[in-house]
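Tutorial handout. Part one gives the primary structure; part two gives the three-dimensional structure as tokens.
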Amino acid sequence: MAGGAQGQLAKVVLFVAGFLLLFVYIGFSIPQSDSKPPAETVFDVSAIKTKQDLAKIGQSIFFGNGKCALCHSIGDNSGRCPNLEIKGGQLTREFLYESLTQPSKYIYMDYTASPPRAFPAHMPVINKPPIDLDPNELLSVISFIQSQGGEVTVEPSEIVVGDSAASLGRAGDPAAGQKTFARMNCAKCHSADLLRAKLANKDEGMIRLAILDANAGIKTDPKPVHKGFDQALSVRDFNDLTAYLAGLKTAAAAP
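Part two.
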């Protein structure tokens, strides 16, 4: 009896050992890949000659150190956030710029809840740590997103060299914004005095939105007279104009 029990135990031990060896063999036969942080994209300004060059760099940043692909997908619906393959080409540069740098300003509705509830976009600010893209990288990402079925509206000439690049990400210049106000013939519908009254209860987010959409609450003419502003204004123009209008609001509040 004892010999039989020992034989059974030996068989069990051999079976377990064989199973473990098989498991180890299968584990090591699967190709291994090291988990590494996204590769840093080298932004070579001299290599940018066309919009396609800029979009190509933006693609590298989108899937690399921009970390966009952690949530957004291109060409499938595997991401936690919208697939940008076609949708990206329908978005204006100004919408993209603000949604990337101030995502919490965009409110969405969750219709799966009852009643539906509003919530801000849950996305990191892309030009601040830990992602911290510089203005050139940010414009290239916008170019890549727009290239997904749409027209790239960022010009290679907007990519700047050296310390001047930082100015694209800073607050706008009110004096330059006043010139943009005149160049875009804004005074045709908006006098400075009228704007001071209209801006009294508007925050900067509403001001930025109203520049792109005349029906957003700061208007004297119900016609869509701002159509095309997203194409006519560069990011710098847009920031400058916002700063000028915000200055009018401040001046109105001072007394």
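Part three, for discussion. Residues 12 and 131 are 54 Å apart (CA to CA). The beta strands are 107-110, 117-120.
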